[in-house]
Amino acid sequence: MRAIHFGTTLPKRVRPTAPRRCSGGQRLPKAVRAGTTGLPRVIPVMYDVPMTTQYILSQLDALRRATLSTDGTRQGSFSVLFHSFLDIAEDPDLLKASKPTKDKTIKGAIESCARSITGDTAPGIQGLRMLRIDRAGFIHGTFFAGASVGTFFYFEEERQGLVAFNQGGGVTRFTRLTLLDLPEGAFPVSPPPTGSPRS
User: Fold this and answer.
1) In contact, 55 and 11? CB cutoff 8 Å
2) Which residue segment(s) compose the domain that 26 sits in?
3) What is the pLDDT of residues 43-76, one digit of tens each?
4) I want to staple 177 with a disulfide (CB 3.0 to 4.6 A). Which of 13, 44, 161, 181 is the partner?
């Protein structure tokens, strides 16, 4: 995608031929091409505006909708959702649009999920890398939890996401990540013990 910046009017002897098409590919009116609109001719200074950002945002919007509509009741639904994220993550422009960030609340939630999934009582996760795309309110990253390699994504506005634990041997376990504000006087309930049925 390109944009036109109108610069300084040049003397007639060095004025270029007026372009026949604008940056979006649309054909310009004949009067504009001929310079008969009463406006001085100018050189359109072209500069790149990455369309990749818009493309990534549109892909994340689709992932956002899928995250909200996936409840884990259908066998393999979390796997499909996770692979949708991996398809987006293969695009190097996702990393280009991301900036390092920190969020203690999300980190704590992931650690709680890790203890539940892996059965490890270790107090934390290791090697956490957390990235954020500001325009999408989207956080994603990777970490290690014991012998598992973890990947997660999270939408800030919806306060929902997904955490995947690759345990090797083709085994990947998933858990939904949902953050809620507890009402005054309420307290969190411990997760079910390892080995309990999960969607």
Assistant:
1) no
2) 2-48
3) 343 334 356 688 999 999 999 999 999 987 787 8
4) 161
